[in-house]
Every structure is written in structure tokens, then in C-alpha cells.
Amino acid sequence: MREQNLHKEQGNTRSDSRMSRLSGIYKLRKRFRILIIAFLLVFTTLAAIGVYWVNSLDIEKLVVPILAPTQLIDKNGNPSSEIVSVKIESVSLDQIPLHMRQAIVAVEDKRYYDHTGVDAFGIIRAVFRNVKEGGAAQGGSTITQQLAKNVFLTGEKTFSRKLTEAAYALKIESTYNKDQILEMYLNQIYFGEGQWGIQRAAKRYFGKDTKDLTLAESALLAALPKAPSRYSPLKNKELALERRNLVLSLMRDEDFISNDEYNQAIVEPIHVLKKVPSEQQNHLLGQFASYTDEVIDEAIELYGFTERQLLAGNLLIFTELDPVVQNAMEETYRNDSLFPQSAPDQLVQSGAVILDPSTGGVRGIVGQRGEHVFRGFNHATQLVRQPGSAFKPLMVYAPALEKGYDAQSTLYDGPLDINGYKPENSDHRTLGQVSLRDAVIQSRNIPAVWLLNEIGLQTGKSFVEKLGIPLSEEDNNLSLALGGLFQGLSPLQMAQSYSIFPNLGTEVSAHTITKITTTDGRVLAEAELDRLPLCYRRMLTR
């Protein structure tokens, strides 16, 4: 009897346990169903809101682009320049060669005909590439997103801006077909040198209509929208050639061109017009072309704006410009008697920078003699030359002072032969001995080389590298004492480096921009003076 009762109790226990498990499973299923329903409701609601938002976007500017001017404000709060490009020449798609369209698709958005404005595969691919390469090596924006960004949005690097860009792309794709979108993109994208649209770009660079572009010319133009200033064939011919050949390679990979076409195009040299045709002059208004150009470059390279956003974005750019200083510099450069005699057809060129050493604010820039043109070559910021004796204080005398030398220290000034290197003074005379002060004042070469050898070449190199001046592998000899750099420096780089002397060893960051805002006062970018100055970023990317 006891065994029967025991079996019944055990049976009841198993039954209760089974019921408990079934009850638990039922409750989990119920909760799961509730979660699924809740998720679907939230998803449906958000999707409905998203659809409503996308449908409510106004994309009329795609058809009639409105180019609003951007104003530059000087350090006193007064407008100094107004920059805008007001001329766009549109061409129909049938006037754009097939290889031009294919080149843009190959380099900017190879899945263009497969997505609906936002390419999920492209985004995933970009994320993996960026993680692998340890930075933002590749973006995920489609051609449609780029069109939306350039026409409707600012340069803010925020999630909300990226989301809005995607929404505009979806609206554009639901309104226009792929050929229409590609036509609008090619007619409105910025190709550098103040030129918007493929027709003006073809005329500016090659002096011809779009319909007459060759395969190699099309590939070069397709190379520009990613970074028009960096890949400009007028400023960086080697980079432009490298980028053009990459476009041709991508076109071959996509079977847009044959191996024979690729091999023929890749050996074609780059020939572009150096002088801007009169009808292609851009419409940058106001004064101070060289300073304005540096402001534009700084905003692009340091703060991530596009040239189109700056030149047609209705923005306010607050700068360090001092109009009194700038006008004095330009007046000086108009005085030919202050410069060496020039050939009849070409001025001896020069560039100058004046920088406030207490703040790093660039007060004035003159980029060339003669006619000052916007988006021209800037000898003050873009041209690098051997700094010569101006490099002695940075490479030799400042590190020597740190080592314990002073103005009265005696330096050797006689015949010198260091492992076959035999420097001479400019007057071809030696004094035997000279004080450090007099060596600096008289800019004597032998004492500088002797002193660098005494304190150690590596000491001098370490000092200038701390200033942000990257040296090449070739810069490993005593000629550095006399400014014999392998790459050279620009006037802006020298002004940046010399700021250590009035600041008693503290270097400031050279900059032209204090902040960039919308016309209603919303701050889009603000100077971060601890970031690497633009002049050294250029040096590191050469």
C-alpha cells in the first residue's frame, strides 16, 4: 500500500512538474508574441513616419538650383568677401559620352543601378574597410546621396545629417529615374577650380564641350569630385594622374572598357589648360583672393566642408583677417621696384604670410604678384622651397640654446671638412672665431654647420620635428643647418614655426578660420587650435 501511495505521489510530482514546464513555455511564448507585436507596431509606426517624412521633403532645388553666397567676415566683424558661383551650364545626358557616365559610376558608386538611393551593401563594405584600415578610409554614400548632400545639406558630420541625406536620396529615387539622377549629378557636382557641372569642367580643363571628351579625359574628370583641390591636375599633377588611372582600372574591372582601351588611355599624358578661358572665370566676389583661397582650403581639409557648400551654401565664415595688414601687403606687392627685374612675359613670383604669434591667427596672405585670381596657385601656402639660412634658428641655434649655449658662446669659423662636407660662408671669408650672436646676425654658414655637428644632428632634427616639420629619410646630413631640406617649406610653414620665438618656446597653430555658421547663427565648425595646422597636413600628404 505504501509503495502504491509512493508511486502515486511520484506520479503527481512528475505531472505537476510537467504542467509547470508547460505553463512556463506558454508564458514565454505569450511574452514573445507580445514583444513581436510591440516590435511590429513600433516598426510600422516608425516606417510610416519615415515614409511621411521622405514624401514631405522638397527637392525642387534639384531642377532650379539656388546658389546663395557665403560671406567672409574679418577679425573686426566686417564682411571682407562674398563668394558664390552663379553660372551652371547644363547638358542633356545624350550630350555626355557613355564613357564619362561609366567613369563616374565606376569610381563613385558601382552599384548605382542596383540600389534605390541608399546602398546597404556599400555601407557594410565601407564599415568593414574602415575598421580594417583603422580610420575613415572609405565612405558609403551613393551618387544619389552625394547629390542630396551637395544640393540640400551642410557639411555637418552628424548622424542626423547622414539620416537626412539618406531620406533625400530615397525621395529623389522615388521621383526621378536613374538617367535623370545621373544627369542632375553630372550637371551640379563640383569639379574644382570654381567649376560646377561637367560642361564647365570640360571647358575649363580641356577647352572643349562635354560631348568631345576622350576616355582618358573623362576618367580624369571623374577623379575630381571626391577631392577637387587634392586631385586637381593644375596643382597636383602626379596625384591627378594616379587617381585618373585608378578610375580607368575600375572601369576595366566593371567591364566598361576593354584591356586595349585601358592600355591606350593609361599612357595618355595629362594636358589641361593652365590659363582660365575668359568665359570660364568663376564668380568669386570681393577682395583678398589669396586669403579667401586659404580659408576655403582650411574649411575643406580641416572641417570637412565641400567646396560647393562653401561657395554656394549661404554661410558666414569668421576669420582672423586684418584688412589693414592685408591691404598693406597687397600695396607692397604692387610696387615692382621692391622685386627683382622680371622677364617681359613672366613676373618674378613671391608669396608672403603675416601671422599673429600670440594666437596663430593669420592676419594677411599674398599668394602671388600680378593679377590676383581666386582659386589660383598660392605661392604663400602651396609652393615649397628650400628655406635656406632662415632655417638656421630652428635647426641649429634654438636647440643649441636648449643645450646650454648662449648669445656670447664662441663658435668656430674656419676651414671645415666633416666627412667630405665643406661648407663656405657667403663672403668666402673666415673669421676664426665668432660669437653665437654675430653668427646669427651675419648669417654665417660655417659656424652653423660646426655648431650642429657639436650638438648632434639628431638633436637639431628632433627639435624641428617637435615643431611639426616632418623630415624625409633623405634629410640626414649637416646641410640641414643651411636649410637644405629634401622637400622644402612654404612661407606659411615658416611663419608657423617661427611663432616659438616671440612666445618663448610655445608654438601656436596657424589658422585663418575662427568659426563657420549659418546665417541664423548656428555654429557648424569652430577653431580647435590644438589640431594639426593645415600647412603641416599638406606637408604630410605630399
What's the arrangement of secondary structure elements?
Layout: H1 2-56, E1 70-73, E2 79-83, H2 98-108, H3 120-133, H4 143-152, H5 159-175, H6 178-188, H7 198-206, H8 215-222, H9 237-253, H10 259-266, E3 284-286, H11 289-303, H12 307-312, E4 315-319, H13 323-333, E5 352-355, E6 362-366, H14 392-402, E7 410-413, E8 432-435, H15 436-441, H16 445-455, H17 457-466, H18 491-498, E9 513-518, E10 523-526, H19 534-541
Summary of the model, kept short:
In the C-terminal section; belongs to the transpeptidase family. The protein has 19 helices and ten strands.
Tags for this model:
542 residues; Penicillin binding protein transpeptidase fold; single chain; Beta-lactamase; 45% helix; alpha+beta
